[in-house]
Structures are given as structure tokens and as C-alpha cells.
TrEMBL record, chain A:
This is ABC transporter permease subunit. One of its GO terms (molecular function) is ABC-type transporter activity. Residues 132-372 form the ABC transmembrane type-2 domain. GO terms for cellular component: plasma membrane. It comes from Maribacter luteus.
Automatic annotation (TrEMBL), chain B:
It is found in: Membrane. Gene3D superfamilies: P-loop containing nucleotide triphosphate hydrolases. It comes from Maribacter luteus. One of its GO terms (molecular function) is ATP binding. One of its GO terms (cellular component) is membrane. It is a multi-pass membrane protein. Residues 7-236 form the ABC transporter domain. This is ATP-binding cassette domain-containing protein. Pfam families: ABC_tran. Keywords: ATP-binding, Membrane, Nucleotide-binding, Transmembrane, Transmembrane helix, Transport.
Length: 373, 244
């Protein structure tokens, strides 16, 4: 145990001695948090909205009126036919087309079920995703009104599924994207710093030759690995803390759930990342190689984390791949705990998977570290 | 195999792909001996040494160091040896004291032992003013002396030195050999590689390695008689030339 303590002491000495790295470790992520959280907003205003009203009833007009009232939509025109609407979209004159079918009102009342067709210009996928949310949200609100009206006529107490709604990805009651983005970006920063530092660390000792000197000592593999992991785990938690303080003070992001739970999960999560970092370190000979590989994983993890593109809209194979993305779980847990106040049992699936991942990665890291080649 | 030998090597071979870096070498080093392991650049000295210290697996052959088999008991070998790499391998971003603490610590020394050893080392090398300076800021000769002392912290029986005097001035080299002799007098076995033929004269016995094979092995005196020359330098040149 004492041996591990000496490694930890040495790592901390080196971290704090490196006057060039220290500001990078702490300042860079915080600046990124502030910039990205402000920039990565998905708010879109003045969406060009067109509709085709085949029903022409008070109900259908009421629905259109909902869109008119929204600040996000600019209701442009009532197209006489779907064909004309489509050609307008091709010209870029309209972003979203809502087609209200004939007997919309009547079907709602009689069959408690009707379809609404929404066409979104998907040239910009991210924008389309957001527009989708807005549209869905307005229709859902409208949908509830209809239900209330219906209840007066029909006393059957099953909740009628009146409108087939598109799945909701970006639901956030106040539509405050900063609140939504900050926990996610915090996740990225903690991940990036811990992955890069751990990935670079062992390979750096390989480069300068000190690893060989360590390998001629009778030190045990697990002692070495734990001694290397611990300082970065602490660093990751410090980063999380600073990030949370900024989230609270600067962005006023609510922290509803248990802080304790958040830290508990983060410890397990960082172990996964550090395991990956050490694994990379063991299989590379230079810091440059390690950096490239770390970036490779980082980019894939970020893009497939569900932070910028909803996982539900990915193809099936990609969704399957995201099961192996630790960032996905961390983003989910942070949002659940921070914004929704999720408890231990709510995050249990994510926690279990992350724990399994941590065991696997660190097992691999210990196995791939060879004192004797 | 006699138990009295510190190092016992039999048919040791290491190949990297098609290339044979160490080709079927056999020799022994007696306890307390200063053994010079000579050879031109790329002869295979470092490769052979790495196998003996248990960080490189031999392709074939056997070796015992401190009576432990190097493949099956690498960790026991490691407890009994000190190693100073050809590449400088202390931490440049730590002070002399911090380096000593770290290496003493991972060898499992007690805190009090580390403290007394640190003090002794600083006294011996006369580094009172430099003890809290970063190792990276020291001149090469001093760095090498510190590295040597650090490799002795855990009191090993056998010390492996890979070109310990590479690139340092003649005075420092002289001092370095005095340090080596002091350890030899304490009964420690020294296994040392060098490119300086005058240093070869300081050794009890030397082996000369050419392209992975040991071509000569004897005391400097006997080798000079055998090759009918009057310096180790000439022995070395003769051997190297014969091969070409
Ligand atoms: N890991 C390796 N993979 C492939 N070839 C290697 C490896 N390590 C060493 N070699 C080759 O083995 C040969 C012997 O190298 P080694 O370092 O043992 O020589 P040396 O006698 O120590 O030389 P020097 O005096 O320059 O230190 C060299 O040709 C070297 O290129
Ligand atoms: Mg060498």
C-alpha cells in the first residue's frame, strides 16, 4: 500500500510542477464550458411554417392558431395542395409543412384517433431535429385540449391516443437549452481531460525511459496502475466540482438530484475513462500516437453521445454502438440527476453498465501493461 | 551451475524477427567481480543486459541472476539487482531528493530508511546545495552519479550499468569508477558496459561482443597477451577487424 502512496505523491508533484499544463488542465475546460454552453444552443426562431388545411373546421384552425401564437414559428401561408407546398419547400420558401387531413376533427371525435402529417426540411439535420420538437410540443399541447373536450362526450376512462406523435428528443419544459447543454458539456470536459492526461501519462514515461527504470523494480502491476489512476481520478472530480459551481453560479442550472449520487457515479465513470487511457498508453510508443488514438475515440464518443444528435434518430447499428459509449451514460445520468432529480434506482441501469465497463477496461489495462516483454 | 556465481548465462539468444541481436552467448560472472561487457554499437550489449534484468524475454537459452532464473523468477531477480540504464532515467522534473524518495519508496523502503539514505547520498556526492534542485538542471556528470546512487538505494547484490560514463568528462569518469570500486569492495558484483577501452582496463574480466556473439572473454591482461598487443584498444580493434 505504501508503494502506491509513493507513486501518487510523485504524480501529484509532477502535475503541480508543470507550469504549462496546470492552466491548460483547469482554465481550458472552464473557458470551453462557458463558450460552448452559450454557443451550443439549439434555439431556432422564425421557422417558416406552411400548412394545408384539408379539414377547414374550427378545430383545425385552432391548431394552426397555436403555431401562429408561438414565437418560434412564422406562419407564412395556407397552401391549397400538398404538391404546391412541396415545391415551395424545394425552393426553400418553407421549413415546416403541416398537413391537416380531411375529417381531422370528425375522426378525433369518433375514432379518438387521427394522423397529422408533418414535413420538415431536413437539409440541416440538427435544425430539423429541433423543429421537430417544437412542432411536436405544440401538437401535444393541442392534443391535450382535444382530450379535455372529448371527455365531456365520452365517459370511457381509457386515455385516447388521439394523435400519433413523433418521439420527443429534446424535451425541456422551459426550452432553456443552456440548462440542457451545461451538464452535457461538463461531461465532455471531465472526459477529455482525464482521457488525454491518462493516455499521455504512461507513454510519456516510456518515451523518457523512466518506465524501464520502474520495470526493473519488484513493483506489482496493480500497484503501478492504481498509483497512476488515483491522481487523475482526483483531478477529474475537482474538475467536476469547479464545473458544477460554474453551472450553478453562472448558468443557474438547477441541481435537483443528490450531489452524492452524482459524485458516486462520476467516480465509476472516470475509472472507465482512465482504464481506456492506460490501455491506449500501453499499446503506443509515443505521445503522438497516443494522442491520435485518444482523439479518435473522443470524437466518436462525443458524436454518438446523444449530446448533439439524438440517439433515437440514428440508424439501428449506430444505436447499438452507442451501448459501448461511456459518455452516453454519463450525459444521461448527469441530466437525469441534475435536472430531474433522479435517484439511485433510476440511474441503476446506467450505473451497472458503467461499472461493468470500468471493470473490463481496467482489467485490460492491467493485462496489457507488461513489465516483461 | 555453481551457486557462487552472481550471473550464470547459458546459450542466451534474442531475435527480433529475422534479426538476431544476441546470438547464443554463454558466460558467468563471479560474486564480487567487476565484469566489463564490451562491444561496438549495436553489438547487442543492451539487449543482453535487458534480458538479465528481467524486462526482456529471451528467445531461447537460460540465465540465472542472484541464483534466480530470469524468466520464471523475474521479480526475485529484480529485488537483488540495481540497474542504471543507458538512457538517463531519473525524473528531470523532480528534485534529487524527490527522485530518491520515489525510487526508494517503490522499492518498498521504510520512510526512516529513505530519510537516512537520502542524507547519506547527498553527503557522499557533496550535493547539499543541489538537493532541492530539479534533476533536469544538473550537469550530465552529476546526473549520472545521482542515477548510480539511486540504483543502489535498495542495497542490491548485483549492479548492472549500461554505459554509465557515456558523454561525461574524464574527471567525472574517474570519479565514477572510484564509486564503482567502492561498491565492488563492499562485495557487490558489477556488470558494466562501456565504449571506453581505458575503462576496460579497470575490470577484473571483460567480454567482447561482436554482432551478437561473445568473441573473447578473459582478464584484460590475458587478452593483451593472447592478441600480442599492449592495450585493450588494440585488442578491440583486432577483433572488430577480423570480423569484417
Ligand atoms: N526492440 C527491438 N526491435 C528490433 N531490433 C532491436 C530492438 N532492440 C534492439 N534492436 C537491435 O538489436 C541490435 C543490438 O542492439 P543493442 O541496443 O543491444 O546494442 P548495444 O550493443 O547496446 O549498442 P550501443 O553500444 O549502441 O548501445 C541493434 O542492431 C538494434 O537495432
Ligand atoms: Mg546499448
Amino acid at each position: 500500500m505504501n508503494i502506491i502512496r509513493y507513486i501518487i505523491q510523485k504524480e501529484f508533484r509532477q502535475i503541480f510542477r508543470n507550469k504549462a499544463m496546470l492552466p491548460i488542465i483547469f482554465m481550458m475546460p472552464l473557458i470551453q464550458l462557458i463558450i460552448l454552453s452559450n454557443a451550443a444552443t439549439f434555439e431556432i426562431k422564425n421557422i417558416k411554417f406552411g400548412y394545408i388545411d384539408n379539414d377547414k373546421t374550427p378545430y383545425s384552425r385552432e391548431l394552426v392558431e397555436k403555431f401562429n401564437a408561438s414565437t418560434y414559428f412564422n406562419v407564412l401561408s395556407d397552401y391549397p395542395s400538398a404538391k404546391m407546398a412541396k415545391s415551395a419547400m424545394l425552393n426553400g420558401d418553407v421549413d415546416v409543412i403541416l398537413e391537416i387531413p380531411q375529417y381531422f376533427d370528425r375522426n378525433l371525435v369518433r375514432e379518438k384517433k387521427t394522423d397529422l402529417s408533418v414535413t420538415i426540411n431536413a437539409i440541416d439535420g440538427a435544425a430539423a431535429g429541433v423543429e421537430n420538437v417544437y412542432v411536436t410540443q405544440i401538437i401535444q399541447q393541442f392534443n391535450k385540449n382535444v382530450q379535455v373536450d372529448l371527455m365531456l362526450y365520452d365517459t370511457v376512462n381509457d386515455r385516447p391516443q388521439t394523435i400519433e406523435t413523433i418521439p420527443l428528443f429534446w424535451y425541456n419544459e422551459t426550452l432553456n437549452y443552456k440548462t440542457f447543454m451545461v451538464p452535457g458539456i461538463l461531461v465532455l470536459l471531465v472526459t477529455m481531460i482525464t482521457l488525454f492526461l491518462s493516455g499521455m501519462n504512461v507513454v510519456r514515461e516510456k518515451e523518457i525511459g523512466t518506465l524501464e527504470q520502474i520495470n526493473v523494480t519488484p513493483i506489482k502491476k496493480f500497484q503501478f496502475i492504481i498509483g497512476k489512476l488515483f491522481p487523475f481520478l482526483v483531478l477529474g472530480l475537482v474538475l467536476l466540482t469547479v464545473g458544477l459551481i460554474i453551472a450553478k453560479l453562472l448558468f443557474n442550472v438547477p441541481i435537483i438530484g443528490s450531489i452524492f449520487l452524482m459524485y458516486g457515479y462520476t467516480v465509476v465513470y472516470i475509472l472507465v475513462i482512465l482504464g481506456i487511457g492506460l490501455f491506449i498508453s500501453n499499446y503506443t510508443d509515443t505521445q503522438q500516437q497516443a494522442m491520435f488514438i485518444a482523439w479518435f475515440f473522443m470524437v466518436i464518443f462525443i458524436l454518438m453521445s446523444g449530446l448533439f444528435t439524438p440517439i433515437e434518430s440514428m440508424p439501428q447499428w449506430a444505436q447499438l454502438l452507442t451501448e459501448f459509449n461511456p459518455i452516453k451514460y454519463f450525459v444521461q445520468v448527469m441530466r437525469m440527476v441534475m435536472l430531474k432529480g433522479a435517484g439511485f434506482t433510476d440511474i441503476l441501469p446506467q450505473l451497472a453498465k458503467t461499472l461493468l465497463y470500468a471493470v473490463a477496461m481496467n482489467g485490460l489495462a492491467v493485462m496489457s501493461y507488461k513489465k516483461f516483454t | 551451475m555453481k551457486a557462487a556465481n552472481a550471473i550464470q548465462v547459458k546459450n542466451l539468444t534474442k531475435t527480433f524477427g529475422e534479426f538476431t541481436a544476441v546470438n547464443n552467448i554463454s558466460f558467468h560472472v563471479g560474486k564480487g567481480e567487476v565484469f566489463g561487457f564490451l562491444g561496438a554499437n549495436g553489438a547487442g550489449k543492451t539487449t543482453a543486459m535487458k534480458m538479465l534484468i528481467g524486462i526482456l524475454k529471451p528467445t531461447s537459452g537460460k540465465a540465472q541472476v542472484a541464483n534466480y532464473d530470469i524468466t520464471s523468477h523475474a521479480n526475485d531477480v529484480k529485488k537483488n539487482i540495481g540497474y542504471m540504464s543507458q538512457r538517463f532515467s531519473l525524473y528531470n522534473d523532480l528534485t534529487i531528493k524527490e527522485n530518491i524518495t520515489f525510487f526508494g519508496g517503490i522499492y518498498g523502503l521504510k520512510k526512516a530508511t529513505i530519510k537516512t539514505k537520502t542524507q547519506a547520498l547527498i553527503n557522499d556526492l557533496g550535493l547539499h546545495d543541489e538537493a532541492n534542485k530539479l534533476v533536469g538542471s544538473l550537469p550530465l556528470g552529476w546526473k549520472q552519479k545521482v542515477a548510480f546512487s539511486v540504483s543502489l538505494l535498495h542495497d542490491p547484490q548485483i549492479i548492472f550499468l549500461d554505459e554509465p560514463t557515456g558523454g561525461v568528462d574524464p574527471i567525472t569518469r574517474r570519479q565514477f569508477w572510484e564509486m564503482i570500486y567502492r561498491e565492488a569492495h563492499k562485495g557487490k558484483t558489477i556488470f558494466v558496459t562501456t565504449h571506453y577501452m581505458d575503462e576496460a582496463e579497470y575490470c577484473d574480466r571483460v567480454s567482447i561482443m561482436v554482432e551478437g556473439k561473445i568473441e573473447a572473454l578473459d582478464s584484460p591482461k590475458n587478452l593483451k597477451t593472447q592478441y600480442k598487443v599492449d592495450s585493450m584498444n588494440q585488442v578491440f580493434l583486432k577483433l572488430a577487424r577480423n570480423i569484417e
